[in-house]
UniProtKB/TrEMBL annotation:
Any one cellular-component term (Gene Ontology): plasma membrane
Family statement: Belongs to the binding-protein-dependent transport system permease family.
Keyword Disulfide bond: no
Topology with respect to the bilayer: Multi-pass membrane protein
Localization in the cell: Cell membrane
Membrane-spanning ranges: 21-43, 93-118, 130-150, 162-180, 219-244, 271-295
InterPro entries reported in the protein's UniProt record: BP-dependent_transpt_permease (IPR050366), MetI-like (IPR000515), MetI-like_sf (IPR035906), OppC_N (IPR025966)
Identification of the protein by name: Peptide/nickel transport system permease protein
Annotated ABC transmembrane type-1 domain residues: 91-292
Organism: Quisquiliibacterium transsilvanicum
Keywords, in A-Z order: Cell membrane, Membrane, Transmembrane, Transmembrane helix, Transport
Amino acid sequence: MSALARLRDSDLWFSFRTSPVAIAAALVTAILVFGAVFAPWVAPHQPFELASLDLNDSLLPPAWSAEGRIAYPLGTDDQGRDVLSTILYGSRISLAVGVASVLLALVLGVSLGLLSGYVGGRLDAFIMRVADVQLSFPAILIALLIDGAARAMLPRDAHSDTLSLMVLVGSIGLANWVQYARTVRGSTMVEKNREYVQAARVIGVSPLRIMATHVLPNALGPVLVIGTINVATAIITEATLSFLGVGVPPTSPSLGTMINTGNNFLYSGEWWLVVFPGLALVLLCMSVNLLGDWLRDALNPKLR
């Protein structure tokens, strides 16, 4: 039986196709991700090509308004950039930062959780105390501190867009590893006392191989659920940092940077500069969260 056939016959697929909320969330997520990934081909304009910008087209309202133009469906910003195209390009950066930071937090947290739960003793106590200390601070504050410290240590001539994005990914990832570590630690402490793990020890399998091939696969279910939900959390964290002016550089604006810029024009009547990027951010995070909630319920054997 092929992998596709096994998927069609699985409980996971049955749970998905019988859940209208999951289907709607997956559809919205797919549309937003498709628009972000293929922005250079889908976007009606190239908002970051200076040669294509015209200041005479700045601050145009949406197309359905009296002064709007069909060429700019959601209006333009103060530099004459098409808001729809800018949202598509900004979503690419928000998604990239969110997914990359979650992968970093997942790898770090799962590794530390495996070591803590399997080895135990002083190493377990040290890792968990560090986790307890970090949990006493809000994640956004930790990300803000790490981001600020990293930028202060780097030389001024090294503040490129790529390096700034890497610092942002690292700060968000380092602020969110604790959930994975604590979850994996609990699963590891249960699994390491099972008969198959003890049998692997008896035949001389190394502890590293036991953790990687025996314990880890049985602890990945909750990790996948946390990772799915944390993608939305990471995107919101990135948007918050960018809104505060310490996230994505202005030359590569994300949804948070767009909201920050549009906030300066909100009271002068240019509401579309805030509403449409904010709506895209809400739809993206809400759809990912709904998928995470469905996945949590689908993988919970007590709810079957």
